[in-house]
Amino acid sequence: MRPNTGGGAVLEGKVALVTGGSRGLGREIVLAFARAGADVVITSRKLDSCRELAEHVRAETGRRALPYAAHVGDWEQLDELVEAAYGAFGRVDVLVNNAGIAPLYPSLDQVSETLFDKVVGVNLKGPFRLSALVGGRMAAGDGGSIINISSIAAVRPTPNELPYAAAKAGLNTITAGFAQALGPKVRVNAIMAGPFLTDISRAWDMEAFERDAARFPLRRGGRPEEIVGAALYLAGEASSYTTGAVIAVDGGRSAMTM
């Protein structure tokens, strides 16, 4: 059952760019924004997946959708992505830095430099560059909203995801920094996501996860569509006095003392 997000047409006439937008939480955010009246730029490394979702958006909502393949960890490709978005729509009102990777490794001493650099590149370097490029244009124009999709790993790091946790902690930091740099016309906030049951969770040890999740205040993992309410809030005018905030959407996990 899909929750009632109260989206309406709160983003009518807006343009949203969502990285990692073809699957998981990004896909849910793209669909929610389009249903709320926004045109969307859907980007990930897989163009076919972006095209498929763009067709779905057009058929269901009638909104314009631009599929675009880009590697968020590649500085040059991000410059080209921004040019493509502004070339197609003339503006970007909402940027969602959602793309992220958290590859597995056997032990900390076996984390390769390549793995470390890729994790930091996608989870931190890419959002920094896109926020600078798009945020600068927003600030020079009509303003806008930047939403970074962080993780509770930033505040609850574990040894088996340490490079990812460090990158997400950095993402929380640049959220605060860009909020200062781009105000008052651009708001910059983060959603600190807990464990969501997306396609990525298929690789989890679900028995172990369910034992852990039973300790959460809400006693479960999140459904992908449950990210939508916070994303719509931060994208729209309802959050006009909210910037530099890191909002936990995690079933209460980050509120736990242990």
From TrEMBL:
SUPFAM superfamilies: NAD(P)-binding Rossmann-fold domains. Keywords: Oxidoreductase. The keyword RNA-binding does not apply. Gene3D superfamilies: NAD(P)-binding Rossmann-like Domain. It comes from the Bacteria. Residues 14-200 form the Ketoreductase domain. Belongs to the short-chain dehydrogenases/reductases (SDR) family. This is SDR family oxidoreductase. The lineage of its organism: Bacteria, Bacillati, Actinomycetota, Actinomycetes, Streptosporangiales.
